[in-house]
């Protein structure tokens, strides 16, 4: 008898889409057609043009990789992070910029990171050094170079902006591999860069934590912290939205071949029309939720090397392995076996 895996992925992580929009602006400036690039990343033009629309965190990672290819810039993420106005980050940046000390600002970044991106966590450690690390709890770090480099350069820029340029990192570590570092990147970072590391992080001298933030405003900071707590709480509530409930039901129904709209609506106590309307109000459709969940679960399951691909196909509701293979190849450009092999190499 086949066993289901216990514990499943959380709801598909989203981001504000600010980084994706910066990449699209660069593509437009270069005269590139956005539509095919966005389609490859699983994004739509209206989602990019609507500043209130969040995007899948995974799609934001992919759009940077695609933009780098289109623009023939192997260090696209590094350079993109050097050019934008930090205030575009929004609430989290202003919480940091109104903090008393740099360490307070970094703790706020760690706490409120999910407001901007649910797929990444900032990890702050203060021991013999101040270390700012990035973690990918639900996303595939193996496919990401430019997005990680964008984040680390942005965090370095923020530290410098808040202290009047008084900080210099000791080292930048990145998990992916590069064999060449351009002079402009090396000069901007101003420190040793280690690739193929076991983590993604920036290391600073321990003393920087106590540096005062230029322009700190205690009363404004208290007010912004209140707004940030409310925004973070709202994000958590949205994670328990109708979409999340649909994903919970699908995870149970797919292995039994019952992951269809009528069964999910019935389980949630809704008519098909009411169910469709509820999803529409969250900017989703049943077919899109189903596809997104299958993609996320497929990647997750394929990293479990002891799990046969035939078992994965069953867990995702495919009666034939060939159907799963065809779908996965359409999503990623790789067969399940190729994807598993590439992750093993990484």
Query: Termini separation (Å)?
Result: 33 Å
Helix content range: 40-55%
Number of helices: 17
**Proportion of strand residues:** 5-15%
Rg is: 21 Å
Count of extended strands: 7
For the largest sheet, list the strands in their spatial order: 3-4-7-5-6
Mean pLDDT, all residues = 89
The secondary-structure class comes to alpha+beta
Q: Biggest sheet, in brief?
A: 5 strands, mixed
SSE series: EHHHEHHHHEEHEHEEHHHHHHHH
Uncertain spans, ≥5 residues at pLDDT below 50? 1-8
- Taken from the alpha-carbon principal axes, the silhouette is globular
Your description of this structure?
- The protein has helices at residues 18-29, 34-40, 45-49, 57-70, 76-81, 91-97, 102-116, 146-163, 183-189, 218-239, 242-253, 261-267, 272-281, 286-302, 309-315, 321-332, 336-345; strands spanning 14-15, 55-56, 121-126, 129-135, 171-173, 192-194, 200-205.
- With 346 residues, it is of the alpha+beta class.
- The strands form 2 sheets. A 5-stranded mixed sheet has the order 3-4-7-5-6.
- Strand 3 and strand 4 form a beta hairpin.
- The longest helix has 22 residues, at 218-239.
- The radius of gyration is 21 Å and the shape is globular.
- Residues 1-8 have low confidence and may be disordered.
